[in-house]
Amino acid sequence: MFRNSAEARAGSDAVRTSRPYRQRRRAELEAQTRLRITEAAMKLHGTVGPAWTTVTAVAEEAGVQRGTVYRHFPDEDALFGACSMHWATLNPTPNPDAWVEIEDPGQRLRLALAELYRWYQRNQQMLDNVFRDAPRVPALQPGVEGFLSQLRAVHEALMRGRRERGRRRGRTRDWVRGLALTGPRARPR
User: Which domain holds residue 38?
Assistant: First the structure.
């Protein structure tokens, strides 16, 4: 018996070469849709906050149906994970490794503060929304914990080599820690 209609038309002695089926175009479209959904969620997280972002709102913002959102992101953790990764890629935190190379702690602090202030200024709305909603949205916890870990590294880099003693060191330490956790709203005393 013939396996397909082409074989039947060509005859049984025909040599058939098969071409592997590749979903290149379909995969590209799926990746574009996934990115649109991720960016829609990111936009809503930055405006209304994660706790108030609904799948319906994400779907509407992305121009897809709710089912499409669920097909790409079966649960809240998957959507928040993709959103967090995409946002972090677009908005990397300043790298404290570069600051460690600066010997003078005062110069290191000035450079770091300038970079941190610019970063916080660009990202304050998103950070405010995420930290406000983190206690109510368990899916945010891994991202928040990772961010706080990065901020601890920033704090350590900025305090390395500081010679203040006593109360002055304590005030500087508290101020740097406050800056790392709350952004440029923290002010020195």
Answer: 21-75
